[in-house]
Structure prediction request, 224 residues.
Amino acid sequence: MTATRTALGAAVCCLTLGAMAARADVAPEHDAATGTSVATGTTAADTPVIAADGLEHLVPELAANPYALEPGVRPYLNRLSISPGFGLLGSQRLFVLRAAYNPNAWLGYEASIGHNPSHSVQGILHRFSAIVRRPLAGRFQPYASAGYGMTIVLPGRSLNADPVTKNALTLGGGLECFIRRDLALRAELLGMTVIGRQQYRQGTVAYEYREATIALAFYRTLAP
Prediction:
């Protein structure tokens, strides 16, 4: 009888230890006060969010609703944006790539390069601009822009001429529509004044152009 009781006790102990080990493998214990895993030392914030499709989201708060915006005024402080786009310079096609940084909420600095392809003459535009805005709540964010740069005109092979570099001033504005916190659709309209010399004429000549573009702005926040 004693041997039977001893065997039953040993079996119960083995089953108990096995259940505890299986539970430890499935879900490590957590500290309720700090949210820290006792087994791994990680917190809930460190745990990646895995969506139903099995993908890990880089921005966890967008996992449930990818197009949601947090309430309040749009943040621009210490944010970097990259904006590829296309449009028109006058009546010709224009492809642009812009990079902007906002050292504070209302002011940003932007460098851009553009290519204006054509059959006979091509233009390369590069400039530095200042962007001024008053951040608002909601998706739509207007801004004003002023810049200075250089325009390089490259004659085609059919023209016996050398490349020409001219100064260019721009002034205008645009509107951003935020699709989500890190992505916005951007439309911009600028007036461009190209200043240079004209063959067989004295002094400088100013040429007026209109630049209209639409782009995607990809935002990232940099550490202060």
In short: Helices lie at 2-26. Residues 2-26 form the longest helix (25 residues). Confidence is low (pLDDT under 50) at residues 19-30, 32-46.
